[in-house]
Specification:
- 4 copies of one chain form a homotetramer.
- Chain A has about 290 residues and is α/β, with parallel strands linked by helices.
- The first copy, chain A, folds into 2 domains: about 80 residues, ACT domain (Alpha-Beta Plaits); about 200 residues, Rossmann fold (3-Layer(aba) Sandwich), CATH 3.40.50.
- Chain A is built from 8 helices and 13 strands.
- At the A-D interface, helix 1 and strand 2 of A face helix 1 and strand 2 of D.
- Chains A, B, C, D: InterPro entries: ACT-like_dom_sf (IPR045865), ACT_dom (IPR002912), Formyl-FH4-Hydrolase_C (IPR041729), Formyl_transf_N (IPR002376), Formyl_transf_N_sf (IPR036477), PurU (IPR004810), PurU_ACT (IPR044074).
- Chains A, B, C, D: Pathway: Purine metabolism; IMP biosynthesis via de novo pathway; formate from 10-formyl-5,6,7,8-tetrahydrofolate: step 1/1.
- Chains A, B, C, D: It catalyses: (6R)-10-formyltetrahydrofolate + H2O = (6S)-5,6,7,8-tetrahydrofolate + formate + H(+).
Amino acid sequence: MSSKERRYVIRLGCPDRTGIVAEIATFLSEAGGWIVEADYHSDPDTNWFFTRQVVRAESLPYDVHELCRRFVEVTRRLGGRVEWDIVDTGAKPRVVILVTKDGHCLYDLLGRVHSGELEIDVKAVIGNHTDLAPITRAHGIPFHHVPFPIDPDGKAAAFGQLRQLVDAANPDAVVLARFMQVLPTELCAEWAGRALNIHHSFLPSFVGARPYHQAHKRGVKLIGATCHYVTAELDAGPIVEQDVIRVDHNDSVADMVRKGRDIEKVVLARGLRWHLERRVLVHGNKTVIF
Amino acid sequence: MSSKERRYVIRLGCPDRTGIVAEIATFLSEAGGWIVEADYHSDPDTNWFFTRQVVRAESLPYDVHELCRRFVEVTRRLGGRVEWDIVDTGAKPRVVILVTKDGHCLYDLLGRVHSGELEIDVKAVIGNHTDLAPITRAHGIPFHHVPFPIDPDGKAAAFGQLRQLVDAANPDAVVLARFMQVLPTELCAEWAGRALNIHHSFLPSFVGARPYHQAHKRGVKLIGATCHYVTAELDAGPIVEQDVIRVDHNDSVADMVRKGRDIEKVVLARGLRWHLERRVLVHGNKTVIF
Amino acid sequence: MSSKERRYVIRLGCPDRTGIVAEIATFLSEAGGWIVEADYHSDPDTNWFFTRQVVRAESLPYDVHELCRRFVEVTRRLGGRVEWDIVDTGAKPRVVILVTKDGHCLYDLLGRVHSGELEIDVKAVIGNHTDLAPITRAHGIPFHHVPFPIDPDGKAAAFGQLRQLVDAANPDAVVLARFMQVLPTELCAEWAGRALNIHHSFLPSFVGARPYHQAHKRGVKLIGATCHYVTAELDAGPIVEQDVIRVDHNDSVADMVRKGRDIEKVVLARGLRWHLERRVLVHGNKTVIF
Amino acid sequence: MSSKERRYVIRLGCPDRTGIVAEIATFLSEAGGWIVEADYHSDPDTNWFFTRQVVRAESLPYDVHELCRRFVEVTRRLGGRVEWDIVDTGAKPRVVILVTKDGHCLYDLLGRVHSGELEIDVKAVIGNHTDLAPITRAHGIPFHHVPFPIDPDGKAAAFGQLRQLVDAANPDAVVLARFMQVLPTELCAEWAGRALNIHHSFLPSFVGARPYHQAHKRGVKLIGATCHYVTAELDAGPIVEQDVIRVDHNDSVADMVRKGRDIEKVVLARGLRWHLERRVLVHGNKTVIF
């Protein structure tokens, strides 16, 4: 993502056995593929093998479609259940950002896009309030206002509208950048592995509402933030990244909110970058980060 | 504690109002007291005022008993409920350490005592297993073996024996250095504010048994340790210190245990130092660390 | 700064002796002053005493001018050399920001101002390039372009223009937010104690140009950033704040630049906040942060 | 090292080109080798390729000598300059530790050996003072006292004696655990890649003597420690690991020394572990840590 050079990112997971690396490496080597990154991991608990390999596009004599076609043969030779995908970095990742009123994460992401650090195409920002419309539009990005009524029917309709807007963008990532609504189960399912949330606590501590208030009440000495994939169970999805910052008895809840923002911003930005660089492989409720 | 110079440590808590600092500072100033450390904190939620002041013993014209006698007058002028104590650093703090089999925290504390970093008098190490007897005795410290049977009566008797051994030492701190028994309510009460535990998780995450297994299962990206005062509710007492260390998908439970040890050791050592330097003021279930 | 409540911040430094705290506390107490923050430090090497006290404005029966007039008497009674000031938090701090092309620090500061986290009045942004004019103006802040030619006369003239623009704003802080010009000695002197720089290394490592290149060449395992007051000697002024982030052999110079930005932003933001909250007391080439 | 299972660790470095991974992976696959860890890195600046692979010993039909013999063929096919080695984890690593008076690092390492965390064979501890003889011998390890006179001839003779004692142990690592003598050039050369030093600063800041004094004088906000390979230029060898801890204006030099110890211990322990697990690949003056 940070490189202008076009690359293919191959990700694969399968039951571990001998010879997988040789199979893939030989296939790539015989095609003349120049591997610039290669990572392997084998999980002894589940006996699952993970790999991510990045190949220079120009080193291969064919395009990504032909690569996929030929790679099917490789996966067949591996036998059994194989999960894999190949992504061409030539296409800018498409992202939709969901917000409420707090703008620090949105502001941070837009700054990274603006500076060229994060080479993504923000297709839309969708908010259940309008506070963040001006900053969004100042960056030339469409802002959609979808109010969320309290009554169940109104809320269901709002989620329907949200779904249409998101799906219209066909995004590689749906970022819940301090979006203060709990996604219904069917949206969690549809966006599985693509919806990233930033939770303002060091999970599994302080699940749910007002985690800084909970942290203040408990008297912890560090507060944190967690970027995780959204699943049907609240704040319980696979964790992508976490970090913490020190607090002390001088810090009020408001101070914790302020200090925590700095952690939320970097944790979300790192998590999103890794997700879009296809560095995150999910297996069960855990992640491998290559 | 780290200084050879004799000092008096004054700690005081009372409802906040104007003039408290002036009252104390004027009292000390008029007696010629040389203040080398002074800390204040006011908690807006509970309207409670905290202070800790350290005075050079030789700067006062009288001893600690006379200081206490005169300080009573100061606290009377403050009116209402006042909690305070004054400690003479001339006396080495007395410590009892409780252990089971894991020796890293004990080893670490003994190393700090041996190097002179931690100027304490370890009166005894008490273990429900004998694994750590040799290292304890190699330091010239008595080791007591108190086996803990599973049956309730036997266990109660063991706690009775433990209590006698601890109380005989009249310790300033009872350190649960990976002691794998839950203290009964009456011991928690008796040793309130003196019993320090090291829990091998970033509380309130992963309360109770096998926290590294819980952390591994949840797939967190940081593991931690917490030093807290022991209270009747398991792992829920006032937190003194916490810290974390990064882990990733390569880390097995055994790796987490190993990495976590380095955090447990420093978190316990810091917490114990602060406790013995009288830097920790407990109010409700929270601590102020000066 | 983060509180709407009006307060007076008293800062004082003088040779240490007994009775200073009593003198100040009694003065404030007799005037009915409600102290909300009080910090003391005594430096044994220089025998210098530092204090910062924050008083609720409404608790005093007179305004800040009368407070200053009366405080003069207190300082006289302390005798000898006394450095002090009193600031009324009712007035929003005035800030000028100097930039070149890299916008991450500016972007970050503007985001904090926009969200209300940093309650300051950014009087102007001045750049020797125009890259950051649009984002500045999008926030309704004047942007001045002062090109810096290479020839000494042209550069001197540019610094003259810069000085005029800055001084016209009479700022409480001049922030060098990745401003790529070395201030001449006379500007360092004029803005002493007000000019804050963010240097993209963990000083004193990697002084001067291209610190990330230097860090990459040396093979360090952590990179850092340093917020310091600007003095005549390059990157050698009193340090206000520092932080680091882990890097490894996978990180190219470009990766270090990217990761380093996240540290630069928070270190500068923290340093500026502390400076404006009058938490930083400079003595010699070192700082006390209350 | 932490596993009882016998493994072969293959490390290889060579100019990067396509097909290296395939070559090695195919070789291992055809022999039935079960790879449990595989890491790759390609340095774009030097075009150097690094890999480390760990194979289950029992998965291969021959022993480590035959593996080496056959691996020579693989390296020949790679062509050009190839650096490689293969280590059998069945043999416990042999370590010699050099000390002076400060015992915290020695104490820490012995604690890790004693608990089984660090499965090494400490052949000898050699000190230029006798302070640490008792703790060494309490662990059943030989302690040799080699006094270092100030006169050049006496010092040269002492280094001669040191060399004999070390070489007699044929160690996998020579650990300078706060050894306060600068190794002569010829010893640096002889022990190149095996001599690990712990320096008590965040290098390249504060090279040489009394780094905590230097840090205190400069007023830094973080202090650190660095584990590096010893080379002829003082404190300038390839860095293996670094870490930092926060300090503030309250910290005297003695406080920094105390806080720094906790960082020195873990940084040295991590560096030594990685070295002995053959995770560190040196190239030029930089390290790759797998």
